[in-house]
Amino acid sequence: MNKKPNYDFMYKIVIAGDANVGKTTFFKNIESYDRIPFEEYEATLGIDFNVFYKNINDKILKINLWDTAGQERYRSLIKTYLRNAVGYILIFDLNREETFDSIPKWLEHIKNINTCNHNHPILLIGNKSDLKINVKKNRIENLVLNTDQIIYAEISLKNRDNIDIIFQLLIEHIHFKIYMNNKKCCGLKYVISEEESIKLNNEYQKNKNKNNCCN
To answer: Counting beta carbons within 10 angstroms of the beta carbon of residue 200, is it exposed (0 to 12), middle (13 to 18) or buried (19 or more)?
Structure first.
């Protein structure tokens, strides 16, 4: 798109999970949305960001999607970006059980930074379904059944299975929960404001400058 469109709603969504589970692959392969690159951040700095636009029922949605690094050294920085999100995408590797073991920790981070009186939608993705599945099905089912607002999907990012479809499912879940119910979440934290986006970027730049001395 050559021109940034006007929009009716702006949503912040954060992708999180351990390292090497497919977060960036998911992030870079969403195709059915109009995309306006914000900036190509270095993966070693722990964050990447893109803006997507989508028309749903004649409403233009502006989606700020944040892709976070999974390394432990970035965990405290990533907690900053989890704040004030309308929804989350948590990804684990079906082939590596330890990446699923980390999901409750990510859920706890999300719970601890939540300032609302309700929970936010979470898209939980079990990636690499084309390989041997080492995470027991009953463990996944128990987690999903005992956690509010989880949408679960198993995919193979290698085979590009239904990436756009499940992302659309999350967006529609968020949008109709707000728009159809005329519901706000902690003022403008659910429908994130332009000022909040600028503030988040400024926080990123500060952390980026701090990290430069260690590179």
So the answer is: buried
* Assigned domain for 2 exists: no
* CATH code (residue 193): 3.40.50.300
Whole-prediction pTM value? 0.78
Q: Residue-wise pLDDT tens for the chain (215 aa)?
A: 445 668 888 888 999 998 889 888 888 888 666 665 444 434 435 577 788 888 888 888 888 888 876 555 556 666 677 888 889 999 999 999 999 999 999 999 888 888 777 778 899 999 999 999 999 999 999 999 998 788 899 988 888 777 888 888 898 888 877 666 655 564 333 344 445 545 555 655 565 455 443 33
| DSSP SS3 for 39 | strand
Q: Is residue 99 part of a domain?
A: yes
Alpha-carbon distance of 16 to 70, in angstroms, equals 7
